[in-house]
C-alpha cells in the first residue's frame, strides 16, 4: 500500500519505518530539515533501540522516503497523522495546533477514497471535528482513528508486533467500509498473526488511548501511595507489591514504587484528560487523576528529602552524584523526567550536583545547562557525599557496593527506583535509603 506519515517525531518516524518494513511504500513528511536528513541517512534523530537498523533495512528497499514537501503525499491512499500534542503552557489541556495544521496541509492533496488516520493522542471529540472538516472540504476522503500504544525503548517491537489494534471508524457505513478495509490491509501481517482487533467509533478509540495511560499512571501512583504509608509504618513496599501482584486480577507489572512516572505521555495525557473532562462537565469523574499527579510529584521531593537527611540538612557545597537523567532506561527522553527534576532541585538547594546518563546528557544539557554533567560513571561518583539512583539503567542497577564505596567520600545512597538490595549495601557500610522501604 502507498502510505504517508505526517510528522516524523518519535511516533511518526518509528511508524513510517515499521510500515515500510511490513512491505508498504511509505513517504514520511516533516518540517525539520535536520530530522529529515538524519532519517534519510538511516540515522535515528533520538535514541531508540533497533530504529537505526530498521531505517537502514527499510530504506535499502527503496520503500521508505522522507520529505518536507507535503504535495508528495499525493498518490498515497492512507495518510497517518502522527504529530505531537504537547501540554499547553500554563494549562492542563493538550495543544492541538500541530494536528490542525497537519489536516490543513493535507486537505489540498487528498483524493476520493483516501483515508486519513489519526494516531496522535487527542482529547475525545477531536476526531469528530476533523471528520466534519474533511466532509466540508468535499475531498471525498474519510477519517479513521487508530491510537498508538508504543513504549519508548520498545517502540520498534510495539510497532511491528502490537499487543492490540484499535480502529475507530466513521458512523456512516460506507465510510466505515472504506476506512476499515484500508486499515485491514495496512495491518494485514499483524492481523494474520491473530493480534486482537477492536473496532470502535471515534470517541471510544480516542478514549482507549487516554484511559490506558490514565490506568497505568494510576497503578504507579497507587503503589507510590502505599510507599508513603510504608514509610510511616516500617513496612516494605516491594514485598507488598510482590504479594498483591501474585493476584492475577492485580498483576505485578507497573507496581514499581520509586521516584514516579515521567516522559512525553503519561503526565501530559492525564492532565489533558482532566482538562477535557472538565470541558465536558464531567471533571469529577476523573478528579482522582489530580491525586495521581500529586502523589507522583511528591515522590520527587521525597528523594530530595532523603538526600537532605543524609547530608544533615546542610547540602551547600556537598557533592551529590545523580545516576540517570532520562525518564526511564532505554531512552534519551528527558521530557518531564523525575530524574532530571531531582537533579535540578538538589542543585537549587546549593548541592554540588554531578549528573550522568548513558544517553540523555545532550537533551538534559539543552534544558538545564546549569548542571555539571559527567560522561563517566567514575567521574560522577568519585568524592560524592551521596549517590542517588533515579533512572534504573542496567549499568547503575548492578553496581558492586564495595567497589563504588572505594570511590565516594561518604557511603550514602538513595535508591530512587528501589533497584538495590538494601541488606547488601548496608553490609558494605552504606547508609541506604529506598522509597517505601524500612
Ligand atoms: C507510555 C505507555 O506505556 C505507552 O503504552 C504509551 O503509548 C505511551 O506512554 P512510555 O512513556 O514510553 O509509554 O513509558 P512507560 O514504560 O509506560 O513508563 C512510564 C513511566 O512510568 C516511566 O517514567 C517509568 O519509569 C515509570 N514507571 C513504570 C514506574 O515508575 N513504575 C513502574 O512500575 C513502571
Secondary structure blueprint with pairings:
Elements: E1 2-6, H1 10-21, E2 25-29, H2 33-40, H3 51-60, E3 64-67, E4 78-81, H4 97-106, E5 115-118, H5 126-137, E6 142-145, H6 155-160, E7 165-168, H7 173-186, H8 188-192, E8 197-200, H9 202-233, H10 237-245, H11 266-279, H12 288-310, E9 319-323, H13 338-348, E10 352-356, H14 361-367, E11 372-373, H15 377-381, E12 386-389, H16 394-397, H17 401-405, E13 412-415, H18 422-427, E14 431-433
Parallel strand pairs: 1-2, 1-4, 2-3, 4-5, 5-6, 7-8, 9-10, 9-12, 10-11, 12-13, 13-14
Helix pairs in contact: 1-3, 9-11, 9-12, 12-13
This protein binds uridine-5'-diphosphate-xylopyranose.
Describe what this molecule looks like in 3D.
With 438 residues, the protein is of the alpha/beta class. It folds into 3 domains: 2-200, Rossmann fold (3-Layer(aba) Sandwich); 210-235 and 245-293, N-(1-d-carboxylethyl)-l-norvaline Dehydrogenase, domain 2 (Orthogonal Bundle); 301-434, NAD(P)-binding Rossmann-like Domain (Rossmann fold). Helices cover 44% and strands 13% of the residues. It is built from 18 helices and 14 strands. The protein has a 6-stranded parallel beta sheet, sandwiched between helices. The longest helix is centred in the middle third of the chain and has 32 residues, at 202-233. The radius of gyration is 23 Å and the shape is globular. It starts with a strand and ends in a 5-residue tail after the last strand. Bound molecules: uridine-5'-diphosphate-xylopyranose. Uridine-5'-diphosphate-xylopyranose is lined by residues 148-152, 213, 216, 220, 254-256, 258, 260-263, 265-266, 327-328.
